[in-house]
Amino acid sequence: MDTALGLFFPPELPTILLRLFLAFLAGAIMGWERERFIKDVSRQRGAGFRTYSLVCFGSCLFGLASIYGFSSSGMNHDPGRVAAQVVTGMGFLGAGAIIKYNGSVKGLTTAAGMWVASAIGLMFSAGMYITAIVAAFFAYLTLDFHRLFPRLFPVTKISHPSDESIGEEEQEKRHNHRVFDDDDHD
Q: For the region Disordered, what residue ranges are annotated (predicted)?
């Protein structure tokens, strides 16, 4: 009976659960900041709370599986192999988040943020708590720097697709919206 309980509740379980919780929390905080930014800047949806939480939490899961799930003694036991695959996998996903449209590039911050979130998750899985917490703080600070110090960054306009790529009805809505906005600010 003790053996069966030991399989479901190994002695490392409190440590594993702490690492998972901290990874989720770090990703959630980064994603929460992105949610706030997305709502302020545009009505579009982007990577936010769910995405960052899952990326950080998921990379922690991979790290924990590598550390605790494949016990082996000898030369072939290398938990770093999984970490290396997380790095390349997130690079691949991040590349998919980057969009080039009409001479502008979008998604770089999302790609970089998800890449950093995965690294933070791996750090938690390795038990590097303080370093991971400091890294999460710096990541959050980086993502929220424009709000904390708004005078350092000029206001940027949101680019819209060129008027040629939309119909007349949409052009009229935009024109009326701009006129209405201009009247509001006088």
A: 160-186
Using CA atoms, how far apart are residues 40 and 49, in angstroms rounded to an integer? Answer: 15
Q: What is the pTM of this model?
A: 0.69
| Structural domain span for residue 179 | 158-186
Claim to verify: residue 47 and residue 110 sit in the same structural domain: yes
Domain match, 64 and 122 both: yes
- Which helix (H) or strand (E) is 29 found in, with range? helix 13-41
- Tell me which DSSP letter residue 104 carries: E
pLDDT in tens, the chain (186 residues): 567 776 677 788 899 999 999 999 999 988 888 787 666 666 566 677 888 888 899 999 999 988 887 766 666 677 778 888 888 888 888 888 888 788 888 888 888 888 999 999 999 999 999 999 999 999 988 888 877 777 887 765 444 444 444 455 554 544 444 333 333 332
